[in-house]
Design goal:
The chain is about 35% helix and about 30% strand. The protein is of the alpha/beta class. The protein has a single domain, classed as 2-Layer Sandwich (Transcription Regulator spoIIAA). A five-stranded mixed beta sheet has the order 1-2-3-4-5. The termini are far apart.
Length: about 130
């Protein structure tokens, strides 16, 4: 695996797992300003991978602009034929639920779910078994 730290104001780390064809972007702090967040999230699709995982478990604030960036990322992944999985913090989950866009942003329960080896999603509790 390789890792690259983001130099933008919002901390982000991009990790590529070529064996699983997965790129993971780990973000912390606030998911708020679309410009800054968009730069970090765009890095997730800059690397060719079948699955994009956004690890947002350490996000303490998710604003409307941050949720919009997630929606754009979800659409971009669909357009590229990539599978997106979001590991949400409580703040991210609450914002997605409040906006009613959970069907568009695939939230997962655990890192195992993000890697496709777990049992379900936050959004609907469905099982992958």
């Amino acid at each position: 695996m390789t890792s690259l730290a983001d130099t933008a104001a919002e901390p982000a780390v991009v990790t590529v797992d070529p064996v699983r064809a997965t790129v993971t972007v780990t973000i912390t702090g606030e998911l708020d300003e679309a410009r800054t967040t968009g730069v970090a999230l765009a890095r997730a699709t800059a690397v060719r991978a079948d699955t994009v995982v956004l690890d947002a478990r350490a996000v303490g604030l998710c604003t409307l602009e941050g949720a919009h960036a997630l929606l754009l990322l979800a659409q971009h992944c669909r357009d590229l034929g990539r599978d997106l999985r979001v590991l949400p913090s409580t703040a991210v989950r609450r914002k997605v639920d409040a906006l009613g866009v959970g069907v568009l942003i695939p939230l997962v329960r655990s890192p195992d779910d993000a890697q496709g080896t777990g049992s379900g999603s936050v959004r609907d509790g469905t099982s992958k078994r």
